[in-house]
Amino acid sequence: MSDFKLCDNGHYFPQNLENCPYCPKPSNAGGSGQSSLGNKDSGGQGNLARTQIFGSGQSKSEDDFPNFNTPKTQGGGNLNRTQIFSGNNSFPDFGGGFASPQQFQPELGSQGRKMVGWLVSFTVDALGIDYKLYEGRNLIGSDDGCDIPVDDGAVSSRHLTILHRMGQFKFKDEFSTNGTFINDVFMEEGNLKDGDMIRIGDTIFKFRSIA
Q1: Whole-model pTM?
Q2: Predicted pLDDT of residue 140
Q3: Which of 101, 118, 184, 198 is the most exposed place for a label (fewest CB within 10 A)?
Q4: What is the pLDDT of residues 81-116, one digit of tens each?
Q5: Which of 138, 179, 182 is nearest to 159 (CA)?
Q6: DSSP code of 203?
Q7: 197-200 and 160-165: which strand pairing?
Q8: Do strands 4-6 and 180-182 pair parallel, antiparallel, or not at all (unpaired)?
Q9: 8 Å CB contact between 180 and 132
Q10: How far apart are CA 196 and CA 14, in angstroms?
């Protein structure tokens, strides 16, 4: 047996051989100088198409990696894919500020009342401003709680009421300090007709009816 030698696994093989021919050959895992997690095509990032094992002991698939070829908006939505939302959901926010369907609802009238006319003034604003009149009682004054608040120091807090009832417009001065003038005539109450000029304090309105 002098012409043979014993390997670590208990095999006898000729002494002229360097390695035991009966033992499995060792794999050359690092022969290429690159790990199995990366190659020249991935730029050192690893093969994202394969499941890879990380130090935490958990595997991650390609779905866990970002797709660098897919454009994403700031909010994270993928605009290259069709996205379906149910009717009860809001529109997605892709960073562009898409509003929910509720925000496109038309604005309702004051307390659900029908609009019947308006007051137009060029003394409050030189470019013109209008105030809507609705069915029922419309209180005008300098108090913020009025239906039509007017920023005029000569206007009383509760100055004038315009009432629409049965297709007619009536007005009544609410015991104001400086009174109410209709077409430059001082009046405490009466009826309004389309085109009348109303002056309270230093503010002038033109009354327009659409009822």
Answers
A1: 0.49
A2: 98
A3: 184
A4: 555 555 554 444 445 454 444 444 444 555 689 999
A5: 179
A6: E
A7: unpaired
A8: unpaired
A9: no
A10: 125
